[in-house]
Amino acid sequence: MKNTMTLRFLMFAGVLTAIATAPNTSLAVGYYKFCARWQYQFTDQGLGEDYLKHTAGQSYGRIAAARSYAMVWRDSTAVWGGYMNSSGCTGSIVGNAGTYLFWIFPEVSSSSNKKISIYPDSNEQWYTWSYSQYRPAVPSGSTVTLWYNLGGDPISSVAAVATEIINRAVSDTNFLPDKSTPYKIYANQMCPGGASACYTGGRVYLGTLNGGRAANIKTAIAHEMGHANMDYLMGIPKVDYNHSVPADLTHCRCDHVSPPEENRLHCLQSREHAYTSQAEGWAHFYAADLFNNPSDSNCWFAYYKEFLYGVVAPPPVQINAYADHKWIRTLCSYSSTGSELDWLTLYWKVNNKTASAFSFADLNNVYRKICGDAKCDSNDVPIWNSTLIAVGLIYGTTHPKFIFWRDTGVAKGTDL
To answer: How far is Cα 23 from Cα 75, in angstroms, rounded to an integer?
Structure first.
């Protein structure tokens, strides 16, 4: 009864906690290890990026369910519970004979302050995977490792992206800033305002996009988590999509983007207020950074809306995030404006490609300097000169980092 009550608490309160391990009463000294892989299916994979691609010849890929929450029960007794290791495995479990239940939750965590919880919707009821089977005792001196592939719902694809984010955050804490409560993703729910995917109210919503589910579009998932990253790292400046663009500047508008209408508020190529293009460009950069190897001499970004350049390209659209597009300056120049595309390419370049690179911690310092040595909020409206002044104040105007930032802005066309 105690275990049943624990299960109910875990399921309905939406809280995962470690459980006590049953005492070792086994005569056997062999062990079981239970391991899992998230199986993912993405409609925007294989477009030049490096990570979370499908297995060759298959319509899916797999990644170890590293640091995901799991429990193991033997004959209705809890024998292990907690977050699996970096290989996606439980600890060693004394291999008594019995009926084992392996139960996995879509929550990924590297520490108490770095946790991503994935639910179908805002009711926050868990979608879980469980496998039950009788297993004999493990012979003395042996360890039997059992692998399970977790698929069957797009939540497993979202969990794969969450795993990549947590794995990155282990080496760079600023990639997922500390947060006292879990980051939450609703994998099958439209945004409160009707958009297909968004970050609002501290939560990521993934609804219907391009005739399918946004939960199967890895760039869209990572983009929305990029907004969460900005929110908890340096704060999100003002975002205002009501920038007037003349009707004849078709390459600088979003009329070509498929409905719902909310999806046309902004797009990769639209001319926007400078501060809005920075917020959206940052989220694109976050996704590009997650799926590309920075040591490569390229960066490919799979855009999840239509893109207009002469003709309308349907999504996913392969975008070269390493190139100098100078979109606004070339096609729709206007002072103190910007495009998400140009800022995406600037962030990628300054973060990855020189000894004078700006780490996430450095970029955090730049934006906090812009916003009065505090987190940015909707009262802050940074333009290009704001960033240049902030970099100069931090490093000095003769420092290689200042020169790199300045020259990269010119090359990318963000210097408006």
So the answer is: 14
